[in-house]
Specification:
By secondary structure, the protein is of the alpha/beta class. About 45% of the residues lie in helices and about 20% in strands. The strands form 4 sheets. A 5-stranded mixed β-sheet has the order 4-3-5-13-6, with helices on both faces. A 4-stranded mixed β-sheet has the order 8-12-7-11. Strand 1 and strand 2 form a beta hairpin. Helix 2 packs across helix 3. The two termini are about 65 Å apart.
Length: about 300
């Protein structure tokens, strides 16, 4: 059906007059009559009663019934026109460990926001174990974690590794290269970096009482590490973002294993997220080759 014919019919039903309908549509009365007749021929029934001498029109029973249909048709037509002009948006839900989101992947997210107007990215920070569960339950589409877990429906891909360093207050005067034997465990602010790091840490100080303080996020660590003589072992990406005039970085002569970042996805992604996931992975590949990422690990 033609939009103008439906519009004309609704103008007639509102004004109850062919002449008034012609006025509000800025048409001649003959054009209004022609459109009405064309619509009636198309649907195969009369919509108004044609009676001489009346100053207003009366709808037939079919005309009354068709009025609601015409209104819905116009509404759907307008919605379709709006939809045709809108860009296709792809939505992706991402989960990452706080230190990865905050100190590494924030630059990737910003780049996508600036350059990909078709991508809507929802980012959340969670523990590694939580991210695995969210991926398995399709609560998120991809995630960045710190170790592998045996989930049969999840694909785990290593992306990069980074060395661990010591950060401390500049007032502490730690050397640029430090041995773990020179670190006072009672002055440590401990941050968990995965089971491999935990095993290394426990083996190194297994004969010493556990008296160190702990934090659960790198952002929280930044609020405490400027206390003189206190120190923490963190990935180089975190250290470089926290470093300022009050915090210094020391390389470790006998370092722990490097921290590895993994990307995980469900083996059976949600179908309508596959296009967004493909686009995101292309951006991720470019990001992993970028000078920005290389400069973080120097």
């Amino acid at each position: 059906m033609d939009y103008t014919n439906i519009e004309t019919f609704l103008a007639i039903t509102e004004t109850r007059s062919l002449s008034k309908a012609a006025e509000i549509l800025f048409l001649s009365q003959s054009t209004v009559s022609y459109r009405l007749k064309t619509l009636e021929q198309e649907i195969g029934t009369e919509l108004i009663q044609r009676e001489q001498g009346k100053g207003f029109i009366t709808l037939t029973a079919k005309g009354e019934e068709f009025t609601d249909i015409a209104k819905r048709w116009i509404s759907l037509y307008k919605d379709t026109e709006v939809w045709k002009t809108q860009k296709t948006l792809y939505e992706l839900n991402i989960g990452g460990v706080d230190s990865l989101n905050t100190y590494i992947f924030y630059e990737l997210y910003k780049k996508i926001l600036k350059s990909n107007t078709h991508m809507v990215v929802n980012v959340g920070s969670h523990w590694t174990v939580t991210i695995y569960k969210m991926i398995e339950n399709h609560e998120i589409d991809t995630g960045f974690v710190l170790w592998e877990l045996p989930y049969k429906n999840i694909i785990c891909k290593s992306l990069f590794s980074e060395r661990m360093v010591v950060i401390s207050s500049s007032c502490s005067c730690f050397p640029k290269m430090i041995h773990t034997t020179d670190l006072d465990p009672d002055k440590e602010i401990f941050m968990y970096h995965g089971p491999t790091f935990q095993s290394w840490h426990d083996a190194l100080w297994e004969n010493r009482p556990r008296k160190f303080s702990t934090v659960d996020t790198a952002s929280l660590l930044s609020s405490f590490i400027d206390v003189p003589d206190f120190w923490s072992i963190v990935p180089i990406s975190v250290a470089r973002k926290l470093r300022n005039s009050a915090i210094i970085i020391s390389e470790i002569a006998d370092p722990p294993p490097e921290r590895v970042c993994y990307q995980i996805t469900n083996k059976n992604p949600i179908p309508n997220r596959m296009k967004a996931l493909e686009s995101f992975n292309n951006s991720l590949d470019d990001f992993l080759k970028s000078e920005f990422l290389i400069s973080i690990f120097k």
